[in-house]
Design brief:
This protein is an alpha/beta fold and 149 residues long. The protein contains 6 helices and 5 strands; from the N terminus they run βααβααβααββ. α1 crosses α2 and α5 packs across α6.
């Protein structure tokens, strides 16, 4: 897996893949997390991810008995939370109107743009990944997390 970025935005579904140990996705997430733990990658995400990652549409809910582990996980220094302030919320609303991105997803995209990350990772191909290179100035690169080699 060739990785040529130092900042990444993770949509809630990427954290769900990692924390929920999704078989077809967790290995790639773990490789990126390892880079972050080593200090060569910063992972950004919106504060709404703290709630959203435990129960995604079409996925099994992560059990409540994992609450303490999830809470500790998001306290790692390599994870930077972005609060949904007025500027991000208004940008997200514009994305809903202009690109018809669902509201929660638009908050993630606006948050990624606000930090000018190298790349945004999401498994939501239908609502987010399809806008790769089409939103933001400079254009936001949006893709699925890389698969391990």
């Amino acid at each position: 897996m060739a990785i040529n970025f130092t900042t990444v935005y993770w949509d809630a579904c990427v954290f769900h893949a990692l924390l929920g140990n999704e078989p077809d996705r967790v290995k790639g997430c773990l490789q990126l997390e390892k880079r972050a733990r080593q200090g060569s990658l910063i992972i950004y995400t919106s504060s709404i991810t703290l709630t959203e990652c435990v129960w995604l549409k079409g996925k099994e809910r992560i059990a409540k008995d994992h609450e303490e582990a999830i809470q500790k996980y998001f306290q790692h220094k390599f994870i930077r939370l972005i609060n949904c302030d007025r500027i991000i919320a208004e940008h997200a609303r514009m994305l809903v109107w202009q690109y018809h991105i669902p509201p929660r997803d638009s908050i993630h995209v606006a948050s990624a743009i606000s930090q000018q990350v190298d790349v945004m990772h999401s498994y939501d191909n239908a609502d987010i990944v399809k806008f790769d290179g089409k939103i933001g100035n400079p254009a936001l690169k949006i893709e699925n997390p890389p698969q391990p080699a």
